């Protein structure tokens, strides 16, 4: 059995393996009852983990392609007359070419502007091992509630991580949350009231915009430049409106990929002191850092900066583990609100993350991610320039490039993208009022997919205009 798995593809290996097995069963015209290779044999032959094969076989069982027989293996399932499998062509209809044409015609669009990494890039084995360790450990971690501030063991690990970033924060100043969005929600509920005014970066994080609207908070947009928030606009708005807070992405800004310069960072802290302003620093991409970086929380000596981060981007969005750092009085109010609204976090999820931090597997997995992202970032920026695209800046890390084709509006870009099975995230999504934009957020992790490459080339040609 030859299965051509593409380890550079954005499609997860499990999904590739599942699809190729379906193709193989169809092309070989295997009869019901035919036995498939054992899990160990297939894993060895394809150089994948046993868990990858198990999941692929489980998917095929769930969709009706296979049946599992306890102690003997996996076998081709009997197809009921008139019943197609998961809306796929019936066996008699799928010849050597028609199956591939059918599959390609219904393939999922490539989400080029998404905000997550390909599943194939994630630390599958390390995460699974941590889950097994927690499951075999103290039963309390499977059944009990989590303390209001979060598990002491996890907060101790977070304290060590923050110290390596030169952020002085003892465990008593750290509150765990259900991801960064939960941290933002707790802060908005605690610090702001309907009618209050805040400063937000534009373009910026659309979920923050929606959250502030939900709480009837007035937003003032500060343009994001290559060096950070526009200081001239910021100073004017501080003098005229006396806003309560500034929300900022210091490192690898979403969506532009830009990062704060030291000059801008120091001036932001000076302005915060002069105008009694709190700064909420969203550092969700902290673990993608490669080389030196400027963070407000590192420079802050007056505890005006509230720092938050999360493991959703680097580890797992499903675990929902994040954290924030604040002064003790504010932290107490946030912990009380956290318990009132949600009873606390998942003790199990916090144990899993704590395990990976303690045994070093998380550190190693993020090192791999940074290397891979860096390679894809460099390659994609060169390709975009070659194809005639304009990039706002050259990020030195992170996931995103903010790019456009000069003179080509979004409607035309979207049309070209759909012709190449690519789904875009429009620049208007990152404007605080949803204003039209030629700019696109491009996730570099998906930029080498053949569909993305064809779209980049086509859109950059003069004929596309």
From TrEMBL:
UniProtKB keywords: Aminotransferase, DNA-binding, Pyridoxal phosphate, Transcription, Transcription regulation, Transferase
Pfam families: Aminotran_1_2, GntR
SUPFAM superfamilies: PLP-dependent transferases, Winged helix' DNA-binding domain
Domain HTH gntR-type: 11-79
A GO term for molecular function: transaminase activity
Entry's transmembrane regions: none
CDD domains: AAT_like (cd00609), WHTH_GntR (cd07377)
Family: In the C-terminal section; belongs to the class-I pyridoxal-phosphate-dependent aminotransferase family.
Listed PANTHER family: HTH-TYPE TRANSCRIPTIONAL REGULATORY PROTEIN GABR, TRANSCRIPTIONAL REGULATORY PROTEIN
Protein name: PLP-dependent aminotransferase family protein
